[in-house]
Amino acid sequence: MGKKLFAAVVITTGVLAVAFGTFSVLQSLKCFSLEGKVSSLETQNKNLSEQIQTLNSKLEKAETSETAKIPTVTAQGTVQTNDESSDKADEQAQTLPQTNGTPTTPADIAGKKTAFLTFDDGPSYNTSQLLDILKQNKVKATFFVIAQSKDTPERRALMKREVDEGHTIGIHSWSHNYNYIYASESNFFDDFNKMKNMIVSATGVEPKFSRFPGGTDNTVSLTINKGKPIMPKILQDVLKGGTTPVDWNVGGMDAVIPVPSKDTIVKDIVDECRYRKSAIILLHDSEPHASSVAAVPEIIKQLRAMGYTFEPITSASQVMRRNPATAIKSTKK
Q1: Among the options 167, 172, 176, 284, which is catalytic?
Q2: Which residue from 51, 64, 192, 313 has the least number of CB within 10 angstroms?
């Protein structure tokens, strides 16, 4: 009886061991299978992520391409696109006669990429550092200056330095007070001529170029005058007086407060220049714009690497100017 019981126990233990072993094997197989499925899912997820990244990259390129084709209007009233893969934009830009009588034509700049650094709203304490940067990099720029209604020795000295170091100086505004400037044509020219006279007095040079506060196509003048367009007449009279207004086709993003970071400004400027042969770049050198000035060395470095040369605006330059706004576009749909 004892032997039979012992044998039964042994047999039962063996059966249990086999069953447990089978169960363990099955569990291992299930785990292995599950791990395989997880690994497969991870691979699929990685592939899907790569596909999403590829699609996002394609979308970004498509959006950039569409942005590059936004139309602008030249001084001659012709519509031009910003697609620099074509020479049409450059062919439609206004060409001014050179001082030596030989005009610059689109054929003269075939294959050439030119960047015009222009700075608004100075001079300020940032301007001295900016002039040092430009000198170190052997770059000439254009300054559209303001006085903030104050004729000071410091401003005069910086304006003279700009001219003495070979940069172009232009009129921006005496007061930079939009509500006053655009209240009437007489107000505009009172402000304009005060700034012009200060430039002549400080530098001995009569400015040949100007930039309207807000640009030629500003709508502030329309708002202030309750929809009455005064810019067409102002533009006509400025041109008759021998001053050429200049707008921009790159930049202006640093006009906001707070001013963007140096890295943001560099990236935006470089990205906007990728599709252009002629880039008139708007930056600022007024008191809040330390990051704009700090961005200039890297902008110069990267644009040179892209094949750009730098020039100041002169009578030989192709300038960009939009048509004056004659109506405020509604944002309602």
Answers
A1: 284
A2: 51
Is there a catalytic annotation at residue 120? yes
Decide if 284 is catalytic.
Answer: yes
For residue range 116-161, list pLDDT tens digits in order: 999 999 999 999 999 999 999 999 999 999 999 999 999 999 999 9
Q: Which of 120, 121, 254, 268 is catalytic?
A: 120
C-beta atoms surrounding 161 within 10 Å:
15
Exposed, middle or buried: residue 130 (CB in 10 Å: 0-12, 13-18, 19+)? buried
- Give the chain's domains with CATH numbers: 73-319 (3.20.20.370)
Q: What confidence tens digit (pLDDT) does each residue in 295-328 have?
A: 999 999 999 999 999 999 999 888 889 999 998 8
How far apart CA 252 and CA 156 sit, in angstroms, is 25
Residue 188 φ/ψ region, left for φ over 0, alpha for ψ in the -120 to 50 degree band, beta for the rest: alpha
Euclidean distance between CA atoms 265 and 288, whole angstroms: 14
Global pTM reads: 0.69
If one counts every other C-beta atom within 10 angstroms of the C-beta of residue 298, the result is: 16
Which two three-digit tokens encode residue 277?
Answer: 């042969």
